Amino acid sequence: MKYRYLKDVVTLNLDQSKCNGCGLCLEVCPQQVFTIKEGLSSITDRDACMECGACARNCAPGAIYVRPGVGCAYAVLMDKLGIKGKCCGDTCGCTLEGTSDY
Amino acid sequence: MNDGRDLPMYESKAVSCCSSSPEQEEEISYVNCEGFLAGTIETAIDQVARVKAELTASDKIGSFKARWGVGRMSYAVAPGLYAVGNPTPESPVLVSANYKLSFDSLRKELGGLDLWILVINTKGINVWCAAGKGTFGTAEILRMVAETKLPALVSHRKLILPQLGAPGVAAHRVKAESGFRVIYGPVRAGDLPAFLKNDCKAEPEMRRTTFTFLNRLVLTPVEIVGLLKPLAGLTLAIFLLSSTALLVGGDQYRLLAVIAQTAQILVPFILAALTGAVLAPALLPYIPGRALAWKGWVLGMVLAVILLVGAYSNTSWLLKSAYLLALPAIASFLSLNFTGSTTYTSLSGVVKEMGVALPVMIISASLGAVALIVSFFI
Questions:
Q1: Which range marks the domain in which residue B285 is found?
Q2: Is B71 on the interface with A (CB under 8 A)?
Q3: Alpha helices, DSSP H only, in B108-219?
Q4: Which candidate from B166, B341, B351 shows the least CB-CB separation from A95?
Q5: Is the same domain home to A53 and A33?
Q6: Is B349's Cβ below 8 Å from some Cβ in A?
Q7: From the CA of B230, how many Å to the nearest CA of chain A?
Q8: What confidence tens digit (pLDDT) does each residue in B41-95 have?
Q9: Does residue A54 sit in the same domain as residue A82?
């Protein structure tokens, strides 16, 4: 099943005029946000985006923009309080580790 | 033996694999590798340590401890090249993080295969988190490819990366700067044998993250450990309040009565903490709504109502108000914290829900605290 998070909040954008249709964004996206339509990538499930930034980082022509970040309230809180380097500390359950990530 | 080799790191790995080279992070010590190595193999450039493709008791104990937050920040494997089985120059190269849980979950799936594992230095952090920080990244891969003399060792020019490493790695830059083509493998290590057999093509389901009941549950122990300190503080506060109220009231101080009262008042708070930290993650997809703070609040409210009509129906109206205000706030805060463990929450979404939820939580919990304190003296 696909988890749904908040609607219409993500910063993801695709400039199709720069897309070369390589399809790497489809490959790296863990949330199946993109599909290839008529040889070009297209955003078909924008709200599923978790802003990991994999697509933008791997887009050679630079057609994709997203402000990448970790959707972690603890990290945001520490950042707001000005406490640096506290993320992934001993109290962080961080994503997927060991269960499926390698 | 190839003496006169100029690869100190490799040499040390072959001999005592865990000594780190000087340029590595000082504060991270690497786990003793004796348990997971199975000898070395000779290659064109040097000896390479061979890892076992199964987990031993000590690996499992180590994983268990890391899950409960014990020594978790130094649960790292020395970066470098490792062999699985009897790899040749044609064998595939897998890239992995040096968090031991990541490394273990990779190698345990590789029984019967012959390949290379390039462990890069992610400072003991798992692939996805490290990719988000950029430590599982383009620069570190390029550095390790050069340091391990990979181009001289293998005849092909392909690196297989975990798909979840992609946020940190620009495949086109790795190709341009090292000649190695990055192939993103499946999300889960368990799919690697099928992926390799299928000519490095991933089936669509291999590309999807899953977040099953077990995946969620395995992440909760560390949340429980995080609760111990605040709960200890709360216990002490209630104990002191109870004692003070008794003394102010002019009654004779009876320790047993104070302990009993403390325990009775404390239990709902412990239940609320467990609701937010364990129950909300476990039931995540079944709780209505989208925001995690909301999901936790709903469960916390359900808990409060159950307690107030049930076992706590005879308590004062002030204490009841305290529970109604504080329990949902506590559960809400802790389930909001679980955003860091989920596979689908975005930074923009988290910032948005925090903007609404945090003020509500703070006000609600503060009013609850006031009601709790006053309830001792009325």
A1: 216-377
A2: no
A3: 127-133, 138-147, 150-153, 171-178, 192-197, 213-217
A4: B341
A5: yes
A6: yes
A7: 13
A8: 988 888 899 999 888 888 888 777 777 766 655 678 999 999 999 999 999 999 9
A9: no
